[in-house]
Specification:
alpha+beta, 4-stranded antiparallel sheet, about 130 residues, 2 domains, elongated
Length: about 130
Amino acid sequence: MKKLVFITATVALIASGAVAQQADGTNAATGMVGGAATGAIIGGPIGAGVGAVVGATLGGALTPPPPEVVTYVQQQPAPPSVVVQQPIAVGKPVPETVMLTPVPDNPTYAYAVVNEQRLIVEPKSRTVVQVIN
C-alpha cells in the first residue's frame, strides 16, 4: 500500500511540473484530465497518474496560434462553410474534404470554416488548434 501511495504522489508531482511548464496550461490541463480519466479506467489509480502525465504532455504540444494569426483569420472574408458529420474539436484533425486556406504571414497555420465555425488549423497534420466563435 505504501508503494502505491508513493507512486501516485510521484506521478502527481511530475504531472504538476508538466502543467507548469506550459505557456497558459489550458491544453495541458485538458490533456491531463482526459489522460487521467482514461488511465483510471484502464489501470486504476496508477493508470490515472500515468495517464495524467501523458495527457498533459500531449495536450501541451498544441500551442495556440499567436494573436496576429487569430486577428488575421477573424478579419478575412469567410470562405464557404463546409458541413461535416464528425464533431470539430481542438486537437482533432479536420477531414481531407475540407479545403484549408494558408495564413500568408505565418505558414505554420491555415484556416477554414466548418459547420459555421472558423477554425485555425496546423496544415501538415490538419489538426485544429483553435476554434473561433
